[in-house]
Amino acid sequence: MHIGHLAAARQLRDEAGLEQVWLVPNAHPPHRSAAPVAGPEDRMRMVEIAVADQPGLVGSRIEVDRGGISYTIDTIRELARSLPGQRFELLLGSDAALQIRSWHEADELLEEVGFTIFNRPDTSIALSTLHELGFSPARTRLVHLDTPAIAAHQVRDRLRRGAPIDDLVPPGVADYIRAHGLYRA
Q: Largest CB tally within 10 Å, which of 54, 83, 112, 155?
């Protein structure tokens, strides 16, 4: 959980007028062949630390507790069952939106939830492209954010080299990573 994630979540909360933004670490990402270097519980704890003093930002254990491969469609359906009548939007970076057709049950996902798509550093997307990918014009909005250009791999790379990460992650997350020896070579 780096400061770019937090900046995006705060801006989405404000720019999109959302009551809450849930940050949902996955148990096992479906697009990765190898498991993440930090386990699901460690990633969940880092999210909880990062959002502890952030109004409207919430860490959700829904995918960590479910375990297994974390398919977004399963999470959307679980939320619909457990919180009937509550409206959810899936917040996606433009880089992820461009890959939506490779997602598990993509057609169903595009039909079952609304989307807020936001630009990522060095990636933008046009509404016409979103519509060509299958995003419904009635249930999709585009939000422009101004966030730091930080990628998770930068944090991991620095840690492997023994370089400081204090400018990339919240202080409590940096402390947690050091205390638990995460992402070392």
A: 155
